[in-house]
Amino acid sequence: MATSGVCVISGLYTPEQCQAMHGQFRDLVQQIHPEWTDWERDFDHNQLFLSRKGMYRAGGLCHQQYVWDIRQDPRIVDIFAHLYGVERTELFVSMDSVCVRGPCVPTEQECREWYHLDQTRTPDPVCFQGFLSLLDMPETESPLRVWPGWHRVPILKDFPPPSHLVNYYPLPSSLEAKLRAYYPNESLERTLVPCKAGSFVLWDSRLPHMGGNSLQETLGRHVVYVSMQPKAWAGRWAAEDGVQPEKAHDDLVKQRCEAFRALCNTTHWSSTTLVINPPPPHPENWPGTGREGEFLREPTAFVPRPALSALGRSLVGLDEPMHNASRCSIM
Protein backbone atom coordinates (compact mmCIF):
# COMPACT_ATOMS: atom_id res chain seq x y z
CA MET A 1 0.00 0.00 0.00
CA ALA A 2 2.75 2.46 0.93
CA THR A 3 4.72 1.68 -2.24
CA SER A 4 2.05 1.40 -4.93
CA GLY A 5 -0.88 3.12 -3.22
CA VAL A 6 -3.20 0.16 -3.74
CA CYS A 7 -3.71 -3.32 -2.33
CA VAL A 8 -6.11 -6.27 -2.66
CA ILE A 9 -7.41 -8.20 0.35
CA SER A 10 -8.61 -11.51 -1.07
CA GLY A 11 -11.20 -13.93 0.26
CA LEU A 12 -13.05 -11.57 2.58
CA TYR A 13 -16.36 -13.05 1.42
CA THR A 14 -17.11 -16.48 -0.04
CA PRO A 15 -18.38 -16.92 -3.63
CA GLU A 16 -21.72 -18.03 -2.19
CA GLN A 17 -22.05 -14.86 -0.10
CA CYS A 18 -21.17 -12.74 -3.13
CA GLN A 19 -23.76 -14.46 -5.30
CA ALA A 20 -26.41 -13.97 -2.62
CA MET A 21 -25.70 -10.22 -2.46
CA HIS A 22 -25.57 -9.95 -6.25
CA GLY A 23 -28.94 -11.70 -6.26
CA GLN A 24 -30.40 -9.04 -3.96
CA PHE A 25 -29.58 -6.36 -6.51
CA ARG A 26 -31.04 -8.43 -9.33
CA ASP A 27 -34.22 -8.98 -7.32
CA LEU A 28 -34.56 -5.22 -6.79
CA VAL A 29 -34.07 -4.54 -10.49
CA GLN A 30 -36.76 -7.13 -11.26
CA GLN A 31 -39.20 -5.21 -9.05
CA ILE A 32 -38.37 -1.91 -10.74
CA HIS A 33 -38.41 -3.34 -14.26
CA PRO A 34 -40.59 -6.49 -14.28
CA GLU A 35 -40.37 -6.53 -18.07
CA TRP A 36 -36.66 -7.39 -17.78
CA THR A 37 -37.28 -11.10 -17.43
CA ASP A 38 -33.82 -12.28 -18.49
CA TRP A 39 -30.86 -10.64 -16.73
CA GLU A 40 -28.26 -11.61 -19.30
CA ARG A 41 -30.41 -10.39 -22.17
CA ASP A 42 -32.41 -7.48 -20.76
CA PHE A 43 -30.38 -5.72 -18.08
CA ASP A 44 -29.07 -2.41 -19.40
CA HIS A 45 -27.23 -0.23 -16.89
CA ASN A 46 -27.78 2.80 -19.12
CA GLN A 47 -31.54 2.43 -18.70
CA LEU A 48 -31.59 1.97 -14.93
CA PHE A 49 -32.34 5.06 -12.87
CA LEU A 50 -29.78 7.85 -13.34
CA SER A 51 -26.91 5.50 -14.09
CA ARG A 52 -23.58 6.86 -15.30
CA LYS A 53 -21.28 4.09 -16.54
CA GLY A 54 -23.19 1.74 -14.25
CA MET A 55 -22.59 3.98 -11.20
CA TYR A 56 -25.77 4.44 -9.18
CA ARG A 57 -25.70 7.68 -7.22
CA ALA A 58 -29.39 8.25 -6.60
CA GLY A 59 -32.69 6.59 -5.92
CA GLY A 60 -31.59 4.87 -2.74
CA LEU A 61 -29.61 2.16 -4.54
CA CYS A 62 -26.61 2.80 -2.27
CA HIS A 63 -28.80 2.06 0.78
CA GLN A 64 -29.81 -1.51 0.01
CA GLN A 65 -29.47 -3.87 2.95
CA TYR A 66 -26.56 -5.86 1.51
CA VAL A 67 -24.67 -2.60 0.88
CA TRP A 68 -25.04 -1.60 4.52
CA ASP A 69 -24.14 -5.12 5.64
CA ILE A 70 -20.81 -4.58 3.88
CA ARG A 71 -20.27 -1.09 5.29
CA GLN A 72 -20.99 -2.16 8.87
CA ASP A 73 -19.06 -5.43 8.66
CA PRO A 74 -16.55 -5.20 11.54
CA ARG A 75 -13.85 -6.72 9.32
CA ILE A 76 -14.23 -3.89 6.81
CA VAL A 77 -14.38 -1.25 9.54
CA ASP A 78 -11.27 -2.68 11.20
CA ILE A 79 -9.30 -2.20 7.98
CA PHE A 80 -9.97 1.54 8.06
CA ALA A 81 -9.53 1.77 11.83
CA HIS A 82 -6.06 0.23 11.42
CA LEU A 83 -5.11 2.61 8.60
CA TYR A 84 -6.12 5.70 10.58
CA GLY A 85 -5.01 4.41 13.98
CA VAL A 86 -8.42 4.91 15.62
CA GLU A 87 -11.19 2.81 17.15
CA ARG A 88 -14.15 1.53 15.13
CA THR A 89 -16.51 3.98 16.79
CA GLU A 90 -14.27 6.91 15.83
CA LEU A 91 -15.05 6.58 12.11
CA PHE A 92 -17.66 8.01 9.75
CA VAL A 93 -18.54 5.98 6.64
CA SER A 94 -19.40 7.43 3.25
CA MET A 95 -22.79 6.59 1.75
CA ASP A 96 -21.12 5.91 -1.52
CA SER A 97 -22.09 4.52 -4.90
CA VAL A 98 -22.74 1.03 -6.15
CA CYS A 99 -21.54 0.10 -9.64
CA VAL A 100 -23.32 -2.68 -11.51
CA ARG A 101 -23.07 -3.57 -15.17
CA GLY A 102 -24.26 -6.72 -16.86
CA PRO A 103 -22.40 -8.50 -19.66
CA CYS A 104 -22.22 -5.88 -22.39
CA VAL A 105 -20.24 -4.10 -25.04
CA PRO A 106 -19.42 -0.73 -23.42
CA THR A 107 -20.21 2.44 -25.32
CA GLU A 108 -17.48 4.57 -26.85
CA GLN A 109 -17.87 7.09 -24.03
CA GLU A 110 -17.54 4.36 -21.40
CA CYS A 111 -14.28 3.23 -22.99
CA ARG A 112 -12.63 6.62 -22.61
CA GLU A 113 -10.06 7.15 -19.92
CA TRP A 114 -11.20 9.22 -16.95
CA TYR A 115 -8.35 9.07 -14.47
CA HIS A 116 -8.91 11.20 -11.39
CA LEU A 117 -7.99 11.72 -7.74
CA ASP A 118 -10.60 11.67 -4.99
CA GLN A 119 -8.67 14.23 -2.99
CA THR A 120 -8.85 17.83 -1.84
CA ARG A 121 -6.25 20.47 -2.64
CA THR A 122 -4.08 19.37 0.25
CA PRO A 123 -2.20 16.06 0.18
CA ASP A 124 -2.86 15.69 3.91
CA PRO A 125 -5.17 14.36 5.24
CA VAL A 126 -5.84 11.48 2.93
CA CYS A 127 -8.96 9.46 2.32
CA PHE A 128 -8.54 5.72 2.07
CA GLN A 129 -11.22 4.26 -0.16
CA GLY A 130 -12.09 0.89 -1.53
CA PHE A 131 -14.67 -1.47 -2.92
CA LEU A 132 -15.85 -5.00 -2.39
CA SER A 133 -16.21 -6.86 -5.67
CA LEU A 134 -19.11 -9.31 -5.86
CA LEU A 135 -18.03 -10.67 -9.25
CA ASP A 136 -14.67 -11.85 -10.56
CA MET A 137 -12.76 -9.07 -12.31
CA PRO A 138 -9.89 -10.51 -14.34
CA GLU A 139 -7.75 -8.26 -16.51
CA THR A 140 -10.01 -8.92 -19.49
CA GLU A 141 -12.98 -7.30 -17.77
CA SER A 142 -13.06 -3.85 -16.12
CA PRO A 143 -10.83 -3.91 -13.04
CA LEU A 144 -9.52 -0.83 -11.30
CA ARG A 145 -6.74 0.94 -13.21
CA VAL A 146 -4.12 3.02 -11.41
CA TRP A 147 -0.86 4.92 -11.80
CA PRO A 148 1.09 3.01 -9.15
CA GLY A 149 3.18 5.13 -6.80
CA TRP A 150 1.69 8.45 -7.87
CA HIS A 151 0.05 8.98 -4.48
CA ARG A 152 3.52 10.14 -3.39
CA VAL A 153 3.79 12.74 -6.19
CA PRO A 154 2.68 16.25 -5.07
CA ILE A 155 0.21 16.82 -7.92
CA LEU A 156 -2.19 18.73 -5.70
CA LYS A 157 0.56 21.02 -4.42
CA ASP A 158 1.89 21.86 -7.87
CA PHE A 159 -1.49 21.89 -9.65
CA PRO A 160 -3.96 22.80 -6.87
CA PRO A 161 -7.76 22.66 -7.30
CA PRO A 162 -9.71 25.80 -6.37
CA SER A 163 -11.22 24.65 -3.09
CA HIS A 164 -10.71 22.17 -0.28
CA LEU A 165 -14.41 21.33 -0.63
CA VAL A 166 -13.72 19.78 -4.02
CA ASN A 167 -12.67 16.18 -3.39
CA TYR A 168 -12.76 15.09 -7.01
CA TYR A 169 -9.83 16.07 -9.23
CA PRO A 170 -9.99 14.94 -12.90
CA LEU A 171 -6.80 14.35 -14.85
CA PRO A 172 -7.66 15.17 -18.49
CA SER A 173 -5.18 14.41 -21.24
CA SER A 174 -4.20 18.10 -21.33
CA LEU A 175 -3.08 17.94 -17.70
CA GLU A 176 -1.40 14.59 -18.25
CA ALA A 177 0.94 16.18 -20.78
CA LYS A 178 1.92 18.79 -18.17
CA LEU A 179 2.50 16.07 -15.60
CA ARG A 180 4.86 14.25 -17.95
CA ALA A 181 6.91 17.41 -18.36
CA TYR A 182 6.79 18.42 -14.70
CA TYR A 183 7.68 14.99 -13.30
CA PRO A 184 10.02 13.49 -15.94
CA ASN A 185 11.32 10.81 -13.57
CA GLU A 186 7.88 9.37 -12.84
CA SER A 187 6.43 6.57 -14.95
CA LEU A 188 2.91 7.02 -16.29
CA GLU A 189 2.50 3.30 -16.79
CA ARG A 190 -1.05 2.12 -16.16
CA THR A 191 -1.58 -0.94 -14.01
CA LEU A 192 -4.65 -3.15 -13.85
CA VAL A 193 -5.80 -4.40 -10.44
CA PRO A 194 -7.69 -7.65 -11.12
CA CYS A 195 -9.44 -9.44 -8.28
CA LYS A 196 -11.69 -12.36 -7.44
CA ALA A 197 -15.23 -12.10 -6.12
CA GLY A 198 -15.15 -11.46 -2.38
CA SER A 199 -12.00 -9.34 -2.54
CA PHE A 200 -11.70 -5.89 -0.99
CA VAL A 201 -9.65 -3.50 -3.13
CA LEU A 202 -8.21 -0.56 -1.20
CA TRP A 203 -6.33 2.52 -2.39
CA ASP A 204 -5.05 5.94 -1.40
CA SER A 205 -7.28 8.79 -2.63
CA ARG A 206 -4.22 10.66 -3.95
CA LEU A 207 -3.64 7.81 -6.42
CA PRO A 208 -4.76 8.49 -10.02
CA HIS A 209 -7.33 5.81 -10.79
CA MET A 210 -10.41 4.95 -12.82
CA GLY A 211 -12.90 2.15 -13.28
CA GLY A 212 -11.94 -0.09 -16.17
CA ASN A 213 -12.74 0.56 -19.80
CA SER A 214 -12.65 -2.92 -21.31
CA LEU A 215 -13.94 -3.27 -24.85
CA GLN A 216 -15.96 -6.33 -23.90
CA GLU A 217 -17.43 -7.33 -20.55
CA THR A 218 -18.46 -10.96 -20.50
CA LEU A 219 -18.91 -11.29 -16.73
CA GLY A 220 -20.25 -7.86 -15.85
CA ARG A 221 -19.24 -5.76 -12.87
CA HIS A 222 -20.69 -5.36 -9.38
CA VAL A 223 -18.75 -3.43 -6.76
CA VAL A 224 -19.80 -1.71 -3.54
CA TYR A 225 -17.69 1.35 -2.73
CA VAL A 226 -16.67 1.97 0.88
CA SER A 227 -14.58 4.75 2.37
CA MET A 228 -14.19 5.99 5.92
CA GLN A 229 -12.48 8.83 7.77
CA PRO A 230 -12.03 9.75 11.44
CA LYS A 231 -14.85 11.70 13.06
CA ALA A 232 -12.23 13.97 14.58
CA TRP A 233 -11.58 15.43 11.13
CA ALA A 234 -15.11 16.87 10.93
CA GLY A 235 -14.08 20.46 11.68
CA ARG A 236 -10.67 20.34 10.07
CA TRP A 237 -11.29 23.21 7.64
CA ALA A 238 -13.70 25.14 9.83
CA ALA A 239 -11.33 28.06 10.43
CA GLU A 240 -10.65 28.44 6.71
CA ASP A 241 -14.40 28.56 6.12
CA GLY A 242 -14.92 31.06 8.93
CA VAL A 243 -16.96 28.54 10.91
CA GLN A 244 -16.54 27.45 14.51
CA PRO A 245 -15.32 23.81 14.69
CA GLU A 246 -18.21 22.86 16.97
CA LYS A 247 -20.75 24.19 14.47
CA ALA A 248 -18.94 22.46 11.59
CA HIS A 249 -19.16 19.18 13.49
CA ASP A 250 -22.87 19.57 14.27
CA ASP A 251 -23.69 20.63 10.71
CA LEU A 252 -21.85 17.62 9.36
CA VAL A 253 -23.66 15.19 11.65
CA LYS A 254 -27.05 16.68 10.76
CA GLN A 255 -26.27 16.49 7.06
CA ARG A 256 -25.20 12.86 7.36
CA CYS A 257 -28.33 11.92 9.31
CA GLU A 258 -30.53 13.69 6.77
CA ALA A 259 -28.76 11.94 3.89
CA PHE A 260 -29.40 8.56 5.51
CA ARG A 261 -33.04 9.40 6.21
CA ALA A 262 -33.59 10.50 2.58
CA LEU A 263 -31.57 7.55 1.18
CA CYS A 264 -29.18 9.94 -0.57
CA ASN A 265 -25.62 9.37 -1.68
CA THR A 266 -22.64 11.28 -0.33
CA THR A 267 -19.11 11.84 -1.56
CA HIS A 268 -16.15 9.62 -0.62
CA TRP A 269 -14.99 12.05 2.07
CA SER A 270 -17.12 11.26 5.10
CA SER A 271 -15.39 13.95 7.21
CA THR A 272 -16.63 16.67 4.82
CA THR A 273 -19.83 14.98 3.71
CA LEU A 274 -21.49 16.48 0.65
CA VAL A 275 -24.87 15.09 -0.38
CA ILE A 276 -24.49 14.67 -4.11
CA ASN A 277 -27.85 13.24 -5.04
CA PRO A 278 -30.95 14.62 -3.41
CA PRO A 279 -34.19 13.16 -4.79
CA PRO A 280 -34.54 14.11 -8.48
CA PRO A 281 -37.13 16.62 -9.66
CA HIS A 282 -40.40 15.57 -11.22
CA PRO A 283 -40.09 14.22 -14.81
CA GLU A 284 -41.74 17.36 -16.23
CA ASN A 285 -38.64 19.27 -15.16
CA TRP A 286 -36.46 17.16 -17.45
CA PRO A 287 -37.77 18.04 -20.93
CA GLY A 288 -36.05 16.63 -23.96
CA THR A 289 -33.88 14.13 -22.11
CA GLY A 290 -35.47 11.11 -23.72
CA ARG A 291 -35.41 9.42 -20.32
CA GLU A 292 -38.40 11.06 -18.65
CA GLY A 293 -40.26 7.81 -17.96
CA GLU A 294 -37.30 6.55 -16.00
CA PHE A 295 -38.07 8.96 -13.19
CA LEU A 296 -41.47 7.36 -12.71
CA ARG A 297 -39.66 4.26 -11.50
CA GLU A 298 -37.53 5.86 -8.84
CA PRO A 299 -35.89 2.95 -6.97
CA THR A 300 -36.35 4.65 -3.59
CA ALA A 301 -39.94 3.39 -3.60
CA PHE A 302 -38.61 -0.18 -3.79
CA VAL A 303 -35.73 0.12 -1.28
CA PRO A 304 -36.77 -0.63 2.32
CA ARG A 305 -34.96 1.30 5.01
CA PRO A 306 -31.84 -0.68 5.91
CA ALA A 307 -31.38 -2.18 9.36
CA LEU A 308 -28.27 -0.90 11.10
CA SER A 309 -26.25 -2.52 13.84
CA ALA A 310 -24.95 -0.41 16.72
CA LEU A 311 -21.72 -0.07 14.76
CA GLY A 312 -23.65 0.96 11.64
CA ARG A 313 -25.48 3.68 13.56
CA SER A 314 -22.16 4.95 14.86
CA LEU A 315 -20.70 5.01 11.35
CA VAL A 316 -23.59 7.16 10.12
CA GLY A 317 -23.54 9.42 13.18
CA LEU A 318 -27.10 8.74 14.31
CA ASP A 319 -26.05 8.59 17.97
CA GLU A 320 -23.21 11.09 17.69
CA PRO A 321 -23.03 13.59 20.60
CA MET A 322 -23.71 17.14 19.45
CA HIS A 323 -22.38 20.40 20.85
CA ASN A 324 -25.75 22.16 20.59
CA ALA A 325 -28.02 19.14 21.10
CA SER A 326 -27.82 15.80 22.87
CA ARG A 327 -27.69 13.85 19.61
CA CYS A 328 -28.87 13.91 16.03
CA SER A 329 -32.66 14.27 16.13
CA ILE A 330 -33.32 13.03 12.60
CA MET A 331 -33.86 9.42 13.66
From TrEMBL:
This is Phytanoyl-CoA dioxygenase. Coiled coil: none annotated. It comes from Monosiga brevicollis (Choanoflagellate). InterPro entries: Phytyl_CoA_dOase-like.
